[in-house]
Amino acid sequence: MKLRFTVMQLDLNLLTTLDALLTEGSVMGAAERLHLSSPAVSRSLGRIRRLTGDDILVRTGRFMTPTPYALAVREQVSGLIRQANAVLAPSRDLDLAALERTFTLQCHDALTTAVAPLLLASIAAQAPGVRLRFLTETAVDTDDLRHGRVDLEIGATTPELPEVRTETVGHDRLVVALRADHPCVGRLDLESYAAQPHLLVSRRGRLSDPVDEMLASHGLRRRVLAAVGTTAAALHVVSRGDALLTVQDVMCRPLIAAFGLTTEPLPEPLGLPSPPIVCNWHQRYDTDPGHAWLRAQARDVLRTILAAAEAP
């Protein structure tokens, strides 16, 4: 037998009262359990009787006895209360050992190279059932965060969406990557920097960036040979020629080392700001325990990498 509450009639307070009545077996006991007055519980019992068409509790001498209908629905009512509590007061406990989930992260290839080894090791040690997908940045802006196709985006920019949350984890610095035997090693000033051929990393294929604006403010102009879609491809080209590549120092170090390159400080007169490292996610995940844990892992790894770079 099922309760006959309609959507319009359903009142969670009535279910709570009914559960207390069936548990305590009396109006007074239910009132004490719910911290209500006996008249208030009596009124609720009257409403329950009208809705169900059943007396629920009937007096037998000094006591009240549940009706057959009440006995039939007692477990169902108790289960509904437990389900409602689970929905309205969800547990935020996270069992990492039992967590089975796939998270999708999006960042450029240099960030993936720097972050992935430490992040994967940390996650494998804590939550072996968790898997990661690292996606590259696309040539155009997307709504992947909004539509849940990406869980966490790591980069230097923030999508212009009001529902996207952003946390700045730290700041990197810009350096110039070049061959170890390049003629400019050890003597790269503003004029020699502008005089050399350059590569740009641009997912959209842009052939200019803020460096060109700063050079123009000093009356200088550089020659950009090409725009390359990934940092790894650009560094490979740099390792085979005379071109310079202006990149983030810390996050590009693994790739710079892999190609046997060296770095020079960016000429100080350019005055370019240190690029931020930000994590972006959709607000739907603000209180999600698993996602909060993922964000904490990514934050810790990024800060570890930045701190190690500053160590003497």
TrEMBL record:
One of its GO terms (molecular function) is DNA-binding transcription factor activity. Residues 10-67 form the HTH lysR-type domain. The keyword DNA-binding applies. InterPro entries: LysR-type_TF (IPR050389), LysR_HTH_N (IPR000847), LysR_subst-bd (IPR005119), WH-like_DNA-bd_sf (IPR036388), WH_DNA-bd_sf (IPR036390). Keywords: DNA-binding, Transcription, Transcription regulation. It comes from the Bacteria. Gene3D superfamilies: Periplasmic binding protein-like II, Winged helix-like DNA-binding domain superfamily/Winged helix DNA-binding domain. Belongs to the LysR transcriptional regulatory family. This is LysR family transcriptional regulator. It comes from Dactylosporangium siamense.
